[in-house]
């Protein structure tokens, strides 16, 4: 099952697709992708009308997230290109929920603050129920998977020493285009992950190459921390992001980044400098 969000008659609506149909949730259905999954599985969506996605722009498939937990340095080649020692345990940082934006929305770069904006294609997990705290979370607690771009202002990230602000500016977490339920996505290992800039492939790897696999990440981030339904976990990026190239290749006004994960789909976001829009 796949879940997306679109605007219909001025309001966000949920769309659910499977092997046989694409259907639109009613206007009074909660704007909650996890609730839509539950509705479909209960059989209560039988009367939802068929829907044609043509000419509809997809929104971020999650309307918000209580927590966004991200993992750094989690692919062997990416860790090597940074020159940082491979971590002995997952390296975590947070992103603000206000950084979430849609799969084709413009990323608004506050270029009065940063001139070092970079991209990171990532597999993201959507937690399906309250878990963790005293008992480690497991794959059974993952409701769905999606694609994220962990946009990073490298000059702010490393200038601040800690990473949160440089990765949390508004629109710095494109997500989508779909949520793919865990049963459809299958084993999170073995999926191609990639990113290109203006059509030039710069990142390409396999999710099996994570240093810490998804079960290990879940157990680690939930040890003493309660995860809630709708929380997002970003699992790290492969080698090839612009900031670690020689010389660095930071994103310029108007460039388009496509980030994808096999079995889910692609984000395609234009990066725009705010000062250029105001000119």
Average predicted local confidence, pLDDT: 95
Runs in which pLDDT lies below 50 for 5 or more consecutive residues are: none
Order of helix and strand elements from N to C terminus: EEEHEEHEEEEEEEEHEHEEHEEEEH
Number of helices: 6
What percent of the residues sit in helical stretches (DSSP H or I)?
A: 10-25%
Tally of domains: 2
What CATH calls the topology of the largest domain is Fumarylacetoacetate hydrolase, domain 2
Strand-helix topology:
Blueprint: E1 2-8, E2 11-17, E3 22-24, H1 33-42, E4 58-59, E5 68-72, H2 76-82, E6 91-95, E7 100-101, E8 107-109, E9 117-118, E10 121-127, E11 131-132, E12 142-149, E13 152-153, H3 154-159, E14 173-181, H4 182-185, E15 192-197, E16 200-206, H5 214-221, E17 226-227, E18 232-234, E19 256-261, E20 265-273, H6 274-278
Parallel strand pairs: 5-18, 7-14, 8-20
Antiparallel strand pairs: 1-2, 1-4, 1-14, 2-3, 5-6, 9-13, 10-12, 10-18, 11-17, 12-14, 15-16, 15-19, 19-20
